[in-house]
Amino acid sequence: MKYIAEPFKIKMVEPLRLTTPEYRRQAIQQAHYNGFALPAADVYIDLQTDSGTGAMSDAQWAGLMVGDESYSGGRSYFRLMAVAQDIFGYQYNQPVHQGRAAEKVVFPTLTQPGQYWLSNTFFDTTRGHVGLAGGRPVDLVCPEGLDTGAYADFKGNMDVAALRDFIVQHGVESIAGIVMTITNNTVGGQPVSVANMRQVSQVAREFGLPLLIDAARFAENALFVKQREPEFAQASLRHITKEMFSYGDLFTMSAKKDAIVSMGGLVGVRDNPELVERIKANVIPFEGYLTYGGLAGRDLEAIAIGLEEGLDEDYLRYRIGQSQYLADRLEADGVPFQSPVGGHGVFVDAGRLLPHIPWQQFPGHALAIELYLEAGVRACDIGSLLMDRDPVTGQPQRAPAEFTRLAIPRRVYTQAHLDVVADALAAVKDRADSVPGYEIVWEPKVLRHFTARLRPVG
Fold first, then answer.
1. Gap between the Cα atoms of 287 and 126, Å rounded
2. Is the pLDDT reported for residue 124 higher than 90?
3. What residue segments make up the domains of the chain, in order of their start?
4. Residue 151 in 3-state DSSP?
5. Which residues make Cβ contacts (< 8 Å) with residue 306, sequence separation at least 6?
């Protein structure tokens, strides 16, 4: 177990509150056994998400002070556009307030009611916005991605044969497009190879389908490519990024991940003026004027700086090294997880850790609740609770794996914090048989895991 030392020094601290098990039991009951409803002040180590929870750098904080707050045509907008075009190579880039806003303005422009969107795997908001646009999401991850115990370099890849078969079987007219999620969050933050991107792009070109890149964690994916794909062993991360994006037609991005900001997102279009105009028509009523896209000028400035900082190799080796350190601790304690570890955290295989809990009782969620009770650590389910009901039949949908995600915020926690998490999971493992499953007592129609109310079974 080797911990990679932080390539920065700490300049400011935020006090954390320590609570008792009795206090936490009352708190989670009052939150209806949903970690999203917990006040953050009641959480000691927050691994619920890495989205918007990172620590900005001194350069980013300084950038906030020079952000141009002009309503239209501000200086910070043009700086962000120059950085985005240089990194991604797309002719048009549009700021929006976050990733789901990007999805909201894009998917309705490309989707006819009942059409399928095909992906290596959709994450929750993307799946939800496909449905809201009248589409039907289909996951086609490679078989290796579903075997949590077996090693594979690129478990996030698309199953290209299954992709082609689906298109042929259902007819190209029933397909709206293809989404490649990099890294593949739902199967454990697993990377996608450039070779797989090429193959998927060839299928998209063959059938005349748009290829959209869900680019939230593009920088982490680029480092995995450099480490694991021999063709790119000597390439810079910028070169790898531009290569990956050359195979797409457009991208949506939550800047709250690899651009290390609290709020923001991007849409990029490579070469499609007509699509650009349709996107603009959605941005203005939904997000605001085109050159601020629902953001303050200071946010645009911070994103521009963060996009470049997020591609720093020293930082990324430390970033992914934190996940590897935590995974090594869990492996030593016999806690199963998606192996190899992903980029933005560790996905504990709750289905294997809690085999007595059926998928209908959400083992990934059950483990997250137990982790909070044990040590005040907030995690979240990436399993069957995350899956909304089938939009056609209304029946529950089973996830390919029952994960509890430990998403590590960027530049926030230290080795000692990760040791607390590992010790807590080992303690839960020792009493795994006593962990109850959960049932839903109320849920919304879309993205239910954010606001659902649950209770322990029995």
1. 18
2. no
3. 21-50+312-456, 58-309
4. coil
5. 56, 57, 60, 255, 258, 259, 260, 261
Confidence band of 94 (pLDDT split at 50, 70, 90): very high
Please identify every residue annotated as catalytic: 71, 123-124, 214, 216, 257, 449
Q: What is the CATH T-level fold of the domain 58-309, as seen in this structure?
A: Aspartate Aminotransferase; domain 2 (3.40.640)
Do 141 and 163 touch, CB atoms closer than 8 A?
Answer: no
CATH fourth-level superfamily of 21-50+312-456 = Aspartate Aminotransferase, domain 1 (3.90.1150.10)
Nearest to 108 by CA among 168, 177, 173: 177
Query: How far apart, in whole angstroms, are the C-alpha atoms of residue 111 and residue 150?
Result: 36
Instruction: Using the Cα atoms of residue 394, residue 399, residue 402 and residue 406 in order, give the sign of their dihedral.
Output: negative
The residue type found at 165 is D
Q: How confident is the model at residue 27 (pLDDT cuts 50, 70, 90)?
A: very high
Contact 275, 234 (CB under 8 A): no
Q: What is the pLDDT of residues 313-330, one digit of tens each?
A: 999 999 999 999 999 999
pLDDT at 159 over 90: yes
User: What tokens appear for 414 in the block?
Assistant: 């230290």
Residue whose structure tokens are 């030593």 = 332
pLDDT tens across 176-211, in order?
999 999 999 989 999 999 999 999 999 999 999 999
Measured CA to CA, the distance from residue 390 to residue 131 in angstroms comes to 10
Mean pLDDT throughout 416-437?
A: 98
CA-to-CA separations, 232 to 46, 173, 219, 221, in angstroms, rounded: 35, 36, 14, 12
Question: Please, what is the Cα angle at 403 between 139 and 383, to 5 degrees?
Answer: 50
Round to whole Å and give the CA distance between 265 and 103.
10
What is the token pair recorded at 67? 């952000």
Which helix (H) or strand (E) segment is 76 a member of? helix 75-88
The residue assigned the tokens 């998606």 is: 338
Q: Quote the CA–CA distance of 108 and 122 in Å, as a whole number.
A: 17
pLDDT of residue 178: 98
CB 8 within 8 A of CB 60: no
Q: Answer yes or no: is pLDDT of 233 > 90.
A: yes
